[in-house]
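[scheduler] slot 2 assigned
[scheduler] job type: sequence-to-structure, two independent chains
[scheduler] chain ordering preserved from manifest
[runner] begin chain α
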Amino acid sequence: MKPIRLMAGFFTVGIWTLLSRLMGFVRDIMIASYLGTGPIAEAFLVAFSLPNLFRRFFAEGAFNMAFVPMFSKKVEADEGALKFAQDAFLGMTLILSAFTVIGVILMPLLVTAMASGFIGDSRFDLAVYYGRIAFPYILFISLSALLSGVLNATGRFMAAAAAPVFLNVIFIGFMLIAALVWGYSDAAPSSDENDLRLHFGNWLVYAVPVGGIVQLAIVWVAARRAGFPMRMGRPKLTPDLKRLALIAAPAALAGGVVQINLLVGRQVASYFDGAVAWLNYADRLYQLPLGVVGIAIGVVLLPDLSRRLRADDVAGGQDAFNRASELSLALTIPAAIALVVIPIPLVSVLFERGAFSEADTMATALAVTVYGLGLPAFVLQKTLQPLYFAREDTKRPFYFALAAMVLNFALAVGLSPAIGFIAAAIGTTLTGWAMVLMLWLGARNMGEAARFDGRFRKRLTRIILASLGMGGVLFLAEILLSPLFGAGSLRYLALAVLIAVGIVSYFGIGQLIGAFKLGEFKRAMRR
């Protein structure tokens, strides 16, 4: 895959991911308005996070990072790629079907592991009820991730990137139906407000498995059209699957460690009323640039590096790695600066309405600032990890993740008695940077393909300078626009102007000082 094709693949994934994240914002704005940060909102958010946690463990983490390089090599050599994909699909179906049944039965234990602070109040029973409805999503979304890996490895990115858009469309549709059926509005609280929110939450949780089925159907059809039809049958433990399991096992342990970090954060937050929701809404804000850039780069870079390593194309591998890192930082460093400089306008305009109060805005904005400081690290992990996975090296990332887990636990739990819920966000951010340092140091013995070239180092300095310049412009613009943020519907216009000022100033400064060339983005977009 040539650099321009790498960037084109990135933009294909990135644009669809951007649309999905924007629809996700609409979804979360509606959830914040209807449910706020109260017990029903926290119960739903914990229930929804359970299948997503295991999804990252089974599909996007361990399995897919092991599966994609092996599958890419089979596609490149034309050595039974279809049979390998079919066997992996059937094996995952069997394992996850059993896991789903066990998870539904043991849901009280899973909720305890996720949020033990819920024990003893209404949030616990409601989270268990919601969790049993939402948990089958793990089966559908994990199979979707496997089929997405098949599509991405063959250079077909659109269907896999577009499927999450439909999940959010279903969420929004269910919420609109619930609002219509129950006459719910974000007006002043009424005597039956909690009953309305409960009915609303009940409708919302059923959107989870329905959305998973729709996502699976989209990539299933796309894979069949691409020449990889998946059919049900009896799973067989082939030599390739045994090798896949051996490669995936360390990655599974690494994925489990990462999820333990998330569990630690949730546990800390569950002991502070409203904190689970505050961290969730803050997470949504920093996940927008992370999803659009980091995940898109990772999806495109891993199969590309795998093919280049098989062909012994060291120079091409180095160029792909450097251009991916350069592009990702060119888009996420300014996003990080923006999250640090203007978190309050972002949170207040997007979420503060209905059941979401001004106090919720301030707490969420604090978390946004802390997460913003870690955003470049979260993205760099997405470009550094493929260096290991493309070589089928999953052991060292596990050791790094284990060290990061210890650090995160010490920070989140140790600091929480003194500084409260924000300790969870601080632990996440500092652990992210520690993980980047370990991945970078560990890659030094991989040869030229894993080293930053002169162009990257030169442009990185200029990207940072352009981002800081943009931050100064945003700070002044926020002061000038501050009266509008308290002027009702004009606050939407004020935020739009503020974002536009940030975009124009960053790309203008970046072009002037040579941080990047706008023509590179235009060529990739056209392709």
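[runner] end chain α
[runner] begin chain β
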Amino acid sequence: MFRIPFLFCVILLIQLQSLSYAQTAYLQSKQIFSGDIAELIIEFDNRIPSLYALDTSVLEADFEILDIKSSVSRKFESNKAFHRMRWQIEILPRSPGKLRIPPLQVGEVFTPVLMLEVIPQSAELNSANNVRVELEAEPERPYVGQQTQIVIRVIHNVPLFDGDLIEPAVDNTDTFSHGLESRYSIFREGQEFQVLERNLSIVARSPGQIRIPPVNYRGLIQSASASSVAGSTAKSRRINRSSKTLLLQVRKPPSEFSGSTWLPAQEIELEQHWDEITNELQVGDSLGLTLGIEAKGLPAEALPAGLLSTNSGKFRVYADQETRSNQFEGRELTGRLEQRFVIVVTEPGEIQIPAINLKWWDVEQEVERMAALAGKSWTASAPETGEDGLETAGKATSWSGTGSPGSAITLAHGNWSWYAGIGAILLIPGLLMCLRSVRVRMSESIATMLKSRRHRQLLKQACLSNNPVLACRELITWGRARWPCDNINGLYEIRIRTRSSELAGELRRLDKALYADHSETWQGRALWRLVAAEHRQLTVETGTREDSLPNLYPQRS
């Protein structure tokens, strides 16, 4: 009477366990060498199409968890659908010997206990399959803010496959990557080795000790000697090789440095470029200046902007947003900063642009140096006015009517202060409104001028660097400014409006390059030359200078 319910419960329990048990948990190889990576596979079937959270903390005592990959696939068996969850766990043994892999919980069940044997590498095997990672830093005692060159080398005498070089994350520093790798051969210990080299630059943000963690290389090698080891069936080995740890002692800026901005570099140069300036400079005209700083061994982010910021009673300086760029010359990092300035003449007389001096620290000679640009000066004249203005203001008031001239003069002197007060009350609001209008016009004109120059500069850079995508974008912006009343949305609208057949031809070539095979190289120098000629022709026809502000003191007719 009691056997039927008992048997039913046993059968039901077996079915439930079969639905929620981890069907598979195994190692790709039960024997590996020291320094090799083991792969633990766990597969679990369930009717719920989702992944359970997998806690691997029980492995951390004997293994370093390198990577966990998970996936879900749908399966059909006996016309029933279920989902197979799969985890691939890469583990690196911390020591040789027979290591126990404890159970891992998956849902409501646990994986079985597994054993992994880690075999120490013999000297013969290590010599035949020699893969090492070297890490160097120069200098090891940099100043704060100074570039430290990091050289990473993977040296090997066996082929490497599916490799990944994992660069270190260094705290309290900025890292700049070369982006390129070099390969070459060297001879060591009577053997030929292949070398994979990568270069980085790091810049410490504050003084003190900086720790550079080990660099890791992970990849596959074909090991002919592995098959000779008893019980080993692996045709290839997934290895992990680490470099040593480096310590840098970062120094404070020396007390001898007297500059306002700390700039430790191997070399710093200043350069300037003035726009074409008319010989007849007047109040209301503007001067365009581009300043550049190039620093060898220093990132662009450390270079100071706003070198020209001095205003005077005769001119005002307006700065555009600076542009920064970094590039490598060999292993050397070179930073560059460029910034545009507009100098607006506000009063007549001598316009004296001061010299620019930038102090920096020579890290090779351990001495302070100065980069300098000489100042410039011009003479600006007052705006021209009509003859009626001054003469009319200087004429004496004529006398008419009855009475003597003396009485008229007496009356004028007697009421002068009253008339002056009334005139001042009426004149002040008008002057305030006029000044506000002038300021608005100046701000809008300067913003438009700077924006136009910036877009033309971007167009020039895109054409000279043969970048068709950027050139197309900046050309459309130029076309909208050239024909503001038209709807310019593409190169076709510009082509049908230009009067230059050569420019139209270059626009067709650019349009073709945007959709052509990337193996065809587009050259943009001719396009920029024609666009610049079109812009100059427009300036001549309209009789205006786009690079100048509108005259704040127009001539009287």
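[runner] end chain β
[qc] chain β: The longest strand covers residues 173-188.
[scheduler] slot 2 released
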